[in-house]
Structures are given as C-alpha cells and as structure tokens.
Design goal:
Blueprint (H helix, E strand, L loop, with lengths): L13 H11 L12 H18 L11 H8 L6 H5 L15 H14 L3 H28 L11 H14 L4 H5 L5 H20 L5 H14 L8 H17 L14 H22 L13 H17 L14 H24 L4 H13 L4 H10 L9 H19 L5 H23 L5 H11 L4 H13 L3 H14 L4 H13 L3 H14 L4 H13 L3 H14 L4 H9 L6 H13 L4 H13 L3 H14 L4 H18 L1
Helix pairs in contact: 2-6, 2-7, 2-18, 5-6, 6-7, 6-9, 7-17, 7-18, 9-10, 9-11, 10-12, 11-15, 13-14, 14-15, 15-17, 19-20, 20-21, 21-22, 22-23, 22-24, 23-24, 24-25, 25-26, 26-27, 27-28, 28-29, 28-30, 29-30
Length: 645
Amino acid sequence: MRRKNHIKPKKASRTTTENSRVSRSPTPPRATIKWNRRDSWWAFSVIVLVFVAHYPALFSSFVFDDISFIELWLPRFDSLLAIFFPPTDIPLWPNAYYRPLGVLTLKLDHVLHGSHPFGWHLFNLMLHAAIAILVYRLTLVLLKDSRLNSRSVPNAEGIAFVSSAWFAVHPIHVESVNWIAGRSDPLATAAVLITILAFLRMQRGGNWIWIVVSATSLLAGLLTKEVAIAAVPLCLLCHLAVLVRRFGWSVVPLKWFKLTRYPLSSVAGYGVAIGVYASFRIANHTPLGVAAQGEMATIGTFTRVCGYYAIQLIPAKLPIIYPQLHTLPSLAASVLILCSFATIAIWFTRRFGRWAAFCWLGVSWCIITLAPSLMVLLRSLDCNPVSDRYLYLPSAGFCIAAVFMLETTSQRYLPAKVRISISVFFIAASALFTQSYGWHWRDNNSLWTYATTRDEQHATAWQHRAIIELKQDNLTSALEYIRIAHTLDPTNAKRSCNYSEIACRNERYQEAIEAANTAISISPDLDTGYVKKGLALLESGRPDQARELFLTAVRVNPLCSDALANLASLEPAGSLKRIELLQLSLTADPRNKMALNNLAVEHHGAGRLRIAIRCLRDALTIDPQFQLARDNLAAIERASSESSN
C-alpha cells in the first residue's frame, strides 16, 4: 500500500522565537514630532498671553541695580575679550560670578537702546515668550514620544498649551521679566530647555549634529548662569524614563547604556562642555569651589527652599532666606521632602500605568529642579513682597508636571468642558494678578513702597525707601525709614553705614557715630564704616579724629576712593599732596564724581582751566544731575571766556 505523504508541522525556528520576544517590547519607531500649523496657533496664543500679562514692563524704568550695570559696569566691558575675561578692578563687581553671555546681551542692549529702558524690557519680554514656547514644545514632545508612552496621550496639544500658558502668566516671573540685570535666569532656562529638546531629538533617531547642539546649548547655559548644570541630570533622567518604558524597573541598572549608542556620546559632549566652562573660570581666577558658589546653586537653592519647611518643622535658629547647606535642620528637611516626593512618584507610577514613565519623569523633574515649588510660590506671593527669580527654572518643570497630573487625575471625574473652564479661570486669574503686580515695578519708589505695604517687617525695603528719599533730598523721611530698617535688622553692616550717612546729613552727628560704630563692630574689614564715622566726626568739628579713621579705612582697603578723597580735603588747598590724594582716589574709582569736582577746583585755583573743565564734564557724564559740578563748570567757563576777552 502506498504511504500517504503527511505534511509535518515545522518547528518554530530560533528567529521566530526571538521575534516573538521582541514583539513583547517593540522598539518604537524613530519618527520626528513635526511642528504643524495647529502648533503655530497655540504658540501665537502663548505669545499673546505673555504680552497681555507682562505689558506693564514696557512702561517701567530701571529698578534695583540696573543703573549700576548700565552706568558703572557695562562701560568697563569695552570689547569681546573684556566680556569673557573681565577686568579685576571693576568697582563693586561680584568677582565670584562668571556670566559672560548675560553681560553680552546687556552690552548689545546698551549699544542698541542706550539709556532708554523700553528696548531693554522688550528684550526681556520677548525672551520670556520664547521660553514659554520652548515649554510648549517640550511638553508636546514628552507627551507624543512613543518611547515614553505606551500609546498616544489624548489632547496632547491642549495639555502642552495649558502648561506653557500657565508658565507664561505666572506671577512668580514678574521679577525675572522686569529686572533687566536679573535676566540670567531666563537665559539659563532657555539653554536648559534647548539642551533637553536636542537630547530627546537625538534619542528619536537624530544624527550626531544633535549631540553638538545639546552640548553647545549646555555650554551657553553655563556661561549664562551656573544653575544650567541641572540639564545634565535631567537628560539622563529622560534616558532612564525610556528604559523604564521599554524594559521595566528591574533591568534598568543592567541596560543603562544599551538602548542606543547616543547616551555615551552625549555624556562625552557634556563633559567637554563642562571642561571648557571650567577652563574659562580658572583662566579668570574664579575658582570652582568656595569663591564661586554658583556651581552649588542647585543644592543651595534647594536648601533655601527647604529652609522654609525646616523653620516650621525643626526648632532651630536658621536664616530665613539662605539657610546654609551644612546646617542639620535644613538637610533633614531636604531629605524628608525628597522622600515624600519619591513616594508620590511611586504612587503615580502604579496608579496610572500607561503614562507611568511620564508621571515619574514629571515628578522627578520637580525633584531635580529644586521644587517643591508650590509652597514656595504661595509663600512668595503671601509673605515675600518681591518674587523669586531663582524659581524661574523650577517653575517650568512644575507647570509641566502639575498640569499633566491634574489633567490625568480629573479625566475620570470631570467632563472636558469643566476642565477647560477651570484652566481658563486659573490662567486668566494669574494673568490679571501678574498684570497688577507688574505695575508696582515701574520704578524703585513704587516697588519698595509696595513691598513695605505688603510686609512691614521687610527691612531691606525700608532701607531702599530711605535711600530713594535721600536722593530726592527728603532728609526727614529718609531718616525715619532708615531707623525702621535698622530697628528691624540691626545686624547688617551696610545698612548701618546708610543709617550713619543719613543721620549725618540730618546733622544728628552722635546718632551717625553710633550707627557707624555698629557697622564697624559687625564687620571690622568693611572700610565704609570707618569712612562714615570719619565723616560724622569731621562734620562735628573733630578733624584729627576723622583723619585717623580715614587712614584706618585706607589700611583696610588701599583702594578706598572715598577715604582718599576725604584725606585730600583735610590737606591745605592748592598743596601738591592734596592733588596727589585726589588723583589716587580717581585711580581707585574713576567714577568718583566728588573727587573729580574737588580736583577741578584745585586745577582752577592753579590756573589750569582746560583740565578743570574736563574734570567737571567727566563728573557730569557720571551724574548729569550733579548740581555742584554744574555750578562750578558754569563759573569756570565764565571765567575762561572773560580771560580770553
């Protein structure tokens, strides 16, 4: 009998088995997340919100130390080489800082707009709008990236818009937008966001160009402000989220660098960027340790944030604004907060499995970028009259994570119209509050008046109000305000020096001497305390004691311009020593207008009219409202014209 041919089933090949295994964790397609017309409309809406909320900044003048930047410091950066290698003799310049790109933007504004504040504020406003668009793009990428999510997130554009809109109109950013000299935080935030976006684009299949873009952006951020170093752990955190999405938690330590070939390359690029930055700092004699504390800005700001908690939780005497890193209560509060946020992250991971990686990434973003932001934001609005620019970068992560988590948790309980109404209400309320708050930043007087209205215990605000009244020759009001400031905080040496100066101008010499003694006892190495006490003694008719104090100030600081100028005033008129001391004073500080005026008087007495006129014109260039120099210049020019006739 003929045997029937039976077709035997084929055994599963090794290749088929491997493919079936791979299918359990498929490699997501490397597709670009394109920018479409709808995204352009969302971005345009964000820009409109920025200008609606922050338009009062366009009508503001210079605040805080903007004038010092423009008149005192920027003229010393007269070339690109001086910007990257600043001179060491710039008066009152914080040499521990090295932020050349921030100075470069200020220099460009100075060239384009001069002393008109509108152009400077317009740059800050446009920068804030650009960062809000970057927040929108980053949120969109994180939501649509198939490597981070098991399936597409519904209404990703809406979530991204709400996150960026809330960031755009949040009141915590009023200081960063209105304060021109404080634009380093927005610039560093822009660099961090570009670094992360380039890293994510590289992970989705980009070529080596994106490694260069990411590393270059990191270097630019470091040259703007040191807090940009936070971009490195954030990028590694993004890579870890991809691994969690694909392999799960158990295999992450074994497959940290096995998913793509890019993490090692990006780490090498970041290492080169950090090395170049460190070389610049070392070349400028700003060490990376104690002298330049900006490298520890991330940890320092975190302990400052946790200091608010530490004061409430642990009975200890801590500085409210800047608790030190080594203080045990501040560290204990930091650990407690980190543990609580890690617990919340784990809960969100288990509760929302399909978006677990993104939830974990969002909460971890808040941890790495120094949140908890919520309490600090609320505390900043309620207790601190001036918003905190140090929270500019953390607020970006906070807005992204908070909006996403609120959206995902409320989807089951609230219909879409209710969620949209709530979002519109919060954005509109934040925009209105930001707008009304921005009007208080139109000048220093209104700002510090508003600060003392919000918090009567704000000693710095009372001090600034006193200085403003002193410049306006309202001596009685200035003395009243500085007394309040000194009573609230008698441990500030510079405030005591201001107290001494104002009391001396009010002819209360004994009160001025006591305030100067307080400054000297607090800080014996501060030359200003000896100068203020010497001036009080000189005005009260004790020139010999005043001379000793001026000499002490010169011994403490050989480049103390005020002490040298006052020593010159004690020498006989027309003497060679008097002229030498005035010239030494101008060598120490070329912008000492009083020394220039006195030197002009000496040259006029010696018959050198042209030199005297040049000195007085230099003094008026420094301060066009210097009335004494105006009167002397008019008298000398009149005498010069009469002699020529």
